[in-house]
Amino acid sequence: MPVVKLQRPTLTTSEKLTLPSIFKGFLVTLGHAFKSLAGKSRGADSLNGSGLGVTMQYPEQKWDGELPEYYRGAPALVTDEQDRERCVSCQLCEFICPPKAIKIVPGEIPSDDEWAKVEKRPKAFDIDMIRCIYCGMCEEVCPEQAIYLRKDYAITGLSRAEMVHDKEKLYEIGGKRVGLVNKWNELK
């Protein structure tokens, strides 16, 4: 295999000096500053920014109206319209979760229950929101559509323990979902 020798491009005098490049960067920054002083910058009207520029005043103004349709927020569990758990503890979401943020302990449905034909339900369902990367794989793999990514971006806590959402918290923030649930299908 022949050896190919590459020639470096020769730099001009202005490229060899650092000062002209710094000056060009300064002019670009100065141009943006004057545009924002003359009026709102590009994009500020759509964000309802206050004052100059596109800065959003966060606690008072929220991104809720600006979130795109494909935005993936934090996961939550949902119930059906009769407040029954949709989750069947198949543990597919736990197995597919890349950062291993989901932990499920399956539990049996009591035999005296009307829906005892259903094999199981989660005894414990925990999602560590610190580990969660909001990839949406848990939502895609769920056969019963029991887990959804909601459009929530402000997930806070004062300790690590507060950032682990248990089953009750996940159902509280998830709410109800209307639609066919295979788990409760009479024909199954």
From TrEMBL:
Its main location: membrane. [4Fe-4S] cluster 2 binds at residues 97, 132, 135, 138. The keyword Iron applies. It catalyses: a quinone + NADH + 5 H(+)(in) = a quinol + NAD(+) + 4 H(+)(out). Binds 2 [4Fe-4S] clusters per subunit. It comes from the Bacteria. Its cofactor is [4Fe-4S] cluster. It is found in: Cell membrane. Residues 78-107, 123-152 form the 4Fe-4S ferredoxin-type domain. It is a peripheral membrane protein. One of its GO terms (cellular component) is plasma membrane. Pfam families: Fer4_7. InterPro entries: 4Fe4S_Fe-S-bd, 4Fe4S_Fe_S_CS, NADH_quinone_OxRdtase_chainI. Gene3D superfamilies: 3.30.70.3270. [4Fe-4S] cluster 1 binds at residues 87, 90, 93, 142. Keywords: 4Fe-4S, Cell membrane, Iron, Iron-sulfur, Membrane, Metal-binding, NAD, Quinone, Repeat, Translocase, Ubiquinone. GO terms for molecular function: 4 iron, 4 sulfur cluster binding; iron ion binding; NADH dehydrogenase (quinone) (non-electrogenic) activity; quinone binding. GO terms for biological process: aerobic respiration. NDH-1 is composed of 14 different subunits. Subunits NuoA, H, J, K, L, M, N constitute the membrane sector of the complex. Belongs to the complex I 23 kDa subunit family. NDH-1 shuttles electrons from NADH, via FMN and iron-sulfur (Fe-S) centers, to quinones in the respiratory chain. The immediate electron acceptor for the enzyme in this species is believed to be ubiquinone. Couples the redox reaction to proton translocation (for every two electrons transferred, four hydrogen ions are translocated across the cytoplasmic membrane), and thus conserves the redox energy in a proton gradient. HAMAP family: NDH1_NuoI. This is NADH-quinone oxidoreductase subunit I. The gene is nuoI.
